[in-house]
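Suppose you are handed a protein chain with no further information: no name, no annotation, nothing but its sequence. What can you learn? This example shows the usual starting point.
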Amino acid sequence: MSNYRQPAIQRLNKKELSYNYPLDQTTNNLANILNDPQHHWLLVFVDDKSQDIKGYIHVELYETTYLAPMFNILALAVDSSFQKKRHRPPINADN
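A reasonable first move is to predict its three-dimensional structure. Written in structure tokens, the prediction is:
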């Protein structure tokens, strides 16, 4: 993840989730998450026009002895300017 995205994640955490966590610790946590792809996934949503990060979801693999593997959603943040808006894929004239 490039450096310009780390402050965006921290801003989303502060603005949308009310977690005012220091940038250096956010950066360290992101590095740990990204270095553990067997258990952690981070999906980042980028605005096509501005290329700004508008949201992310962080999930962790959850395994038990009695069910198939599942995911725990650990964080879901969406910029308030993008909340309650529908994204519509381009219409394909061939359909």
